[in-house]
Each structure stands twice: as C-alpha cells, then as structure tokens.
Amino acid sequence: MRRANPGMNSSNPQVAQIINQSNRPLLISDALGNNYGDVFSLSYLLEPKVRFLLVNNQKIIKIPDGFTDVFLLNPSETWSKIIEKKYKFKTDIVYNDNYYSICKLAKIRNLRRRNIQISHLLRNN
C-alpha cells in the first residue's frame, strides 16, 4: 500500500546503503510497480557510480554489460520470472518492507559441471 505523503520514503537510507556497497551497481525499475518519485527520492542518497535503467511496462529488457551488481526495484513476480528465464539469473531479495522490495540478480551456478570437474580431479590424484 502506498503512502499518501509524497515525501521521502523512510526506507531510502537502508536501500541506498545496500546498493552503494557495490562497485558498479545498476538499479532497474519498471513503472508498472513503482512511482518514479520513489526512484528519484532514492537517487539523492545513491552514490554517483549507481546507474539507473528506467523502463515502462517492458516485459523483456536489455541489461547492459559492465555492472558488478544488478538490482530490481519492486519487481512483480511475473517480471522477475521473465528476467530469470531470459538471463539465467535468480533473484535474491536483499531488502523488503511495506514500500520497497529490492532484488539482486545472481548468476545461477552450474553445479553439475563443477561436480564433474571435481570428480575428474579426484580420479587423477
């Protein structure tokens, strides 16, 4: 539920701290689940290294290369699943309250390949 007060969201300092810890972060926001005023008020607490990708009702987005961490601001479950499937990422919730849900995209590890390599090393020793 959205607040009636258009002032700064009280969660902004916690969210900014999480995002600012990254070396080259990208924050993606879809207009469908957000008030861009929230994004703009949050931007005042984010360091200049943080880049934004603001999309408008796009199902499939192009995530640019060169970022150490990619965050989604208030993604819908459907939008998260589409991004997970297209990019083979999983979405980890790193912050959640009544106003914000911040997800961080993480590459899905291929454990099967890793196990094959480990077992191959064990056989050769």
Secondary structure: elements and pairs:
Layout: H1 12-20, E1 25-30, H2 36-43, E2 51-55, E3 69-73, H3 77-87, E4 89-96, E5 101-107, H4 111-124
Parallel strand pairs: 1-2, 1-3
Antiparallel strand pairs: 3-5, 4-5
Structure description:
The chain has 125 residues and is of the alpha/beta class. Helix content is 34%, strand content 25%. The chain contains four helices and five strands. It has helices at 12-20, 36-43, 77-87, 111-124; strands spanning 25-30, 51-55, 69-73, 89-96, 101-107. Strands 2-1-3-5-4 form a five-stranded mixed beta sheet. β1, α2 (36-43) and β2 (51-55) form a beta-alpha-beta unit. The longest helix is centred in the last third of the chain and has 14 residues, at 111-124. The chain is globular, with a radius of gyration of 17 Å. Mean pLDDT is 79; it is low at 1-6 and 113-122.
Show unreliable segments: 1-6, 113-122
Distance between the termini: 59 Å
Radius of gyration: 17 Å
Helix tally equals 4
- Based on secondary structure, the structural category is alpha/beta
Secondary-structure element string = HEHEEHEEH
Helix content: 25-40%
- Estimate the mean pLDDT confidence: 79
Percent of residues in β-strands: 15-25%
Could you describe the largest sheet, including whether it forms a barrel? 5 strands, mixed
How many E strands? Answer: 5
The coarse silhouette is globular
Strand order of the largest sheet: 2-1-3-5-4
